[in-house]
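One-letter codes give the sequence; backbone shape is given numerically. An example follows:

. . .
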Amino acid sequence: MTLNIYLSGEIHTDWREQIIDGAKELDVAFNSPVTDHGASDDCGVAILGAEPDKFWHDSKGAKVNAIRTRKGIADADIVVVRFGEKYKQWNAAFDAGYAAALGKSLIVLHGADHQHALKEVDAAALAVAERPDQVVEILRYVLRGTLPT
């Protein structure tokens, strides 16, 4: 069985690469949002035209990005949402809620310092991990039924 995994959330660390590298021998396919911060922020105005008001600038970008995000989450068997340390990832919280509303299997990834702030998101998840290697072990267990050695 091939699992389609959507990797959502913070873009400032290499957590996606850690999961992808750790899962190389597994039958999985990964997808994610655009992780180039500048491209993600400016895609709407770069494609559809400039906006003098920052609200409309951001609105255009969010809507263009949502095309990819909705498709990626809809096609996913599992959605992994990472909340990083440095920024508040409102988009990650939205993606987690959207995935939960669609009935997707949700794995949330964050440090212990976010436990209280993310308690409702964590409650919707089937697993809450603190490290990318734990996500890989969950995928390995789901696909092969084997525990870490």
Summary: Strands lie at 3-9, 28-31, 78-82, 105-109, 127-129. Helices lie at 15-22, 37-48, 54-75, 90-101, 119-124, 132-144.
